[in-house]
Amino acid sequence: MIVTETRLGLFYGLPNARHIARLKLLALEDLLYLATPEEIPVDASPHTVSQYGISVAEGAPLVELVFPVGGCTMQETSQTSGEGRVYDLELSAVIPRNEPRLIGWAEANRGREWVALMLDQNGAAYIAGEPENGLALFTGRSIRDANAVTLTLRGRSWHSLYFLESFDSAALFAETEFDLEFGSSFNA
Length: 188
Hints:
Elements: E1 20-27, E2 31-34, E3 48-49, E4 54-56, E5 62-66, E6 72-81, E7 84-95, H1 100-108, E8 113-120, E9 125-128, E10 135-143, E11 147-157, E12 162-164, H2 169-172, E13 177-178, E14 186-187
Parallel strand pairs: 3-12
Antiparallel strand pairs: 1-5, 1-8, 2-4, 6-7, 7-11, 8-9, 8-10, 9-12, 10-11, 13-14
């Protein structure tokens, strides 16, 4: 009998830092297009959105949060429903201080949906949220052992969290013109 063996990786012995290091938030209404990994494959990186697969509105604001180790966590779970498998995602960040600018920004953007670009402490990038299916933002504050603001983003998807080829804004949002009439018409 012949078999085809696949080795997925060497998982033991490699350093493995935890948590999300950086988070960039883009308002869902500013996301014009997101190519799936099947539409624009990334060599040797399945389930990865290409750096050329994101189109956003001109001048779209991108909010970045940088966290200390342990400041932001991400959890994805899956379940099967009557309509198939669904994936629930939750990002949770604890900001150590009641920061008025952060609370003001969160209040001004209440009710919006978001696309989240994440970079973990190991250097892997991810993207969550897609056209017509963004993440909801929730906030909380506490004054206990220390003052803190909690930001939570939650969403649901029909696929697991995609990896992202690059976290570099210059690579993801290059100043190029794209003609939707013909797929290879670029003017750089």
